[in-house]
Amino acid sequence: MGEKSRGSNRGETTGLILNGVYLLIALARVAIDNPELLRHHHLLFKHHAIDGLPHALIQKFASEISLSIETAFPGTYESDVTEMLRTVGISQIPVKEINGYREKLQETPWHARGEVDCNLEFHFSLDFARYWFEPLGRVFGISEQQVEELAREVILKEWSIPINDDPRSNLWNLDQTERETWHSHGSYPRTDNYDFYTSYHAMFVVSAKLLLEMPVVHSHSWCEDEWINWLHRHTLTRSDGRWLADRQDPLPLKRRAWLSETLTENWCKDIKIEDFLDGLLTDYKGETWLNIHGSWSDSDSDRQESFHVTSALVSQETSQSLLNALSSCINPYAFKLPVYQEEDMEFNEFPFELKGWICRDSEGEGLDTTDPHAGKIDYPPYKIGNSIIEKLGLSVDLEQRKWFKADRKDESLICALWSTHREGNGDNGKSPKHGKRMSSSLEFLKELCTILECEIIIEVQIERRLRRSSYYTRSDNDKESSVPNSKIYVLSADGKLRNTGTCYQLR
Amino acid sequence: MSSQQMVNSETLVRAISLGKALVQELKLEPGVDTLSKWMAHYITEQIAIAETTTASEKIEADQQCFETILKLWKHRSSLPNNRYPFKNFKPLFQA
Fold it and tell me: What pairs with residue A384 in β-bridges?
């Protein structure tokens, strides 16, 4: 991407698209932490955001960079320019409400004016129209055919790029790498071949043009904004401009004892009370903490063990009977402790009150899920429910990693996300480790119980299985071992942790 | 961390044992009706308390037991598939 390519669409095509999108994504991240490094080039970023080649991704990230610079150095741009930068990627045409699913297809202004040459020769790869052009067409209520025709015009008329076979195709046709360039059903390929690359960027040029000229249609009540929804699938997972890799935590230092012990034949079933407590209790900065929500696993070359912990708030009067009822369930899959405001899972019939307090959100996968530095972390992190935040006076840091009480300097809760998984290489045959875990100080949990006049019911599940390489795999990985072992505990405001047989005083 | 045995272990063991029996009687196991199981175990917990206490404690446990039976009844009657507890006792109650 260089200044000298400015003003020439063809020059920008080769100079910007081929290198530019991912560079702009990287620079947008740089601009969040170090906008001063990019300030000198502020006109260049403004150009690509507003005046340059229409391309939805290039415009989006160029405008984000520009706005980061403007935020750090107010007055960098004239106020009207700043306002234009804020509207990049936002339709300025009122949304068009339509009934039903593609009830009546619209015609693009270029088609209506007869400006589109429908006889151009360029063949997009199999299913590209169905899985890439069709979703874009749906945003504007037009057919995939018209999106395809516009994309063909961009490639052949605007860019005038040569249509060549990709000389690397023989490499990818080998058995072991044939999936390298697959983009079936709209999924991103691991590697872009020439054909995909051209089609993909032509689609983003068409999308930017459509956004300028046509209203976004709205037909589904479940989707607030079809354009944002479509674009989100092609941008970063996080909406705050940061990357998944920013949220990757280091592996927990504390490892399970069995990792240094020899594999025994009954390892999968040989789960003791101490194993549950080992997963539930931990220490942090010299204090007792509890892992109160999440899933995590550890493994070696032979074995894999997974913990699943959930917790909920239960009324004091009936906590013992719920503990008894859930501990007596034959199948741990027959019940579920609710997350915050989980419909049909919370009970509110005094004195039978069971409420979730931790939110489990989901986020669509973005471009950075293939970033090797992100691993395969399970984003987004857990959050505390809003009513609990208000009652306890909680705040959270930018990464939603550490939660603080207003009257305490140190963190009261931590949500950690980690993963050693690497795309495509299966962790090099080693043992993958991953986890998403909310932990809390005992002091905070006691305070939570006191303020809300409740107790905390916790389920700890342990699943063990043998990895394929193990000598014992065939005999031990039977149906029985696939059912997790489960224990239920109740923690009360006095720091007592109890199950149906034993009570532990935590300090 | 220190650990200690539950103080009311005998009452608790009795409550759990009765609770399991009531859950079986109501055909709640296997099943996913957590609220009914919870109420059933609460009822037997109150029965176990009533058996081992006197005076106001016993009266309170009896009362809780009575009220929860009605709640369980109401909850079960609202469930689909005609899963009405004590259905076989209906003619008896009417008499």
Answer: A358
ipTM given for this complex:
0.86
Q: Kindly give, in sequence order, each residue whose CB lies less than 8 Å from that of residue A40, ignoring residues fewer than 6 positions away.
A: none
Which residue ranges make up each domain of chain A?
2-86, 96-235, 271-505
Show the beta-strand stretches assigned E in A221-286.
281-284
Q: Contact, A134 vs A127, CB < 8 A? A: no
Pairing of strands A303-315, A347-349: unpaired
Tens digit of each residue's pLDDT (9 = 90 or more) over A301-328? 889 999 999 999 999 999 999 999 999 9
- CB atoms near residue A24 (< 10 Å): 26
Task: Report cis status (omega within 30 of 0) of the bond before B30.
Answer: yes
CA distance A89 to A231: 9
Nearby residues of B60 by Cβ (< 8 Å), 6 or more positions away:
none
Q: Which residue of B has its CA nearest to A499?
A: B6
Assign residue B55 a region: left if phi > 0, alpha if psi is -120 to 50, beta otherwise?
A: left
Strand partners, B2: A505
Which of B26, B38, B68, B71 would you mutate first to test chain A, the one with the most A CBs within 10 A?
B38
Q: What is the DSSP letter of A261?
A: S
Substitution target in B12, B16, B20, B69 with the highest count of A β-carbons within 10 Å is B16
Question: Which of A339, A313, A337 has the alpha carbon at shortest distance from A326?
Answer: A337
Question: For residue A92, with 0-12 CB atoms within 10 Å meaning exposed, 13-18 middle and 19 or more buried, which class applies?
Answer: exposed
Residue A334 CA to residue A361 CA, distance in Å, equals 23
Find where tokens 């920008």 sit.
A12
pTM: 0.86
**Which one-letter amino acid corresponds to residue A76?**
T
Q: How far apart are CA A9 and CA A16, in angstroms?
A: 10
Please answer whether residues A27 and A41 qualify as being in contact, where contact means their C-beta atoms are separated by less than 8 angstroms. Answer: no
Mean pLDDT of A267-292: 95
Helices (H), A233-301: 273-280
